């Protein structure tokens, strides 16, 4: 029991001081995303996989959220599996994903680890424009939680 409490306390201590890492990733379309390209916007980093049912259920909410807030939010969908790029492209098209998808390939894999530990699928990190980590979710997230996280950080 104490081990669980210690891990919980360590996480909250981490969240209170965590900042966005210096990163640079290349999406499926060849576009580079880094700290400079997202300057002044919220960053939502979502680790997901095609074999993960909760990941699939949350994709439509990410699509809707990005459609409504793309002027102030960047979403990076970090595909956590080593899969064929054509297969992932077909999958992404089927879900009409409108935000950048980053593959776990040799160009990007080291960058994935910079965001922190992924304890399960899906995992979502939300950073404020100043780079502070404002939310960390393990498990399915919906549009209401996304909006609440951003509104909460503005107050």
Instruction: Give me the count of strands.
Output: 7
Number of helices: 5
Q: How big is the Rg?
A: 15 Å
Give the CATH superfamily: Glutaredoxin
The percent range for helix content is 25-40%
Largest sheet: 5 strands, mixed
Query: What pattern of helices and strands is seen along the backbone?
Result: HEEEHEHEHEEH
| Average pLDDT, all residues | 88
* CATH architecture title: 3-Layer(aba) Sandwich
Class of secondary structure makeup: alpha/beta
**What is the class in the CATH system?**
Alpha Beta
Tell me the CATH topology.
Glutaredoxin
Q: How many structural units, i.e. domains?
A: 1
Q: What strand line-up does the widest sheet have?
A: 5-4-3-6-7
Strand-residue proportion: 15-25%
Describe this structure in words.
The chain has 155 residues and is α/β, with parallel strands linked by helices. It has a single domain, classed as Glutaredoxin, CATH 3.40.30. 38% of the residues lie in helices and 22% in strands. It contains 5 helices and 7 strands. The chain has helices spanning 2-17, 53-69, 85-94, 109-112, 143-154, and strands at residues 24-26, 32-34, 42-48, 73-79, 101-103, 123-127, 133-138. It has a 5-stranded mixed beta sheet with strand order 5-4-3-6-7. Strands 1-2 form a two-stranded antiparallel sheet. The longest helix has 17 residues, at 53-69. The N and C termini lie far apart (35 Å). Residues 4-13 have low confidence and may be disordered.
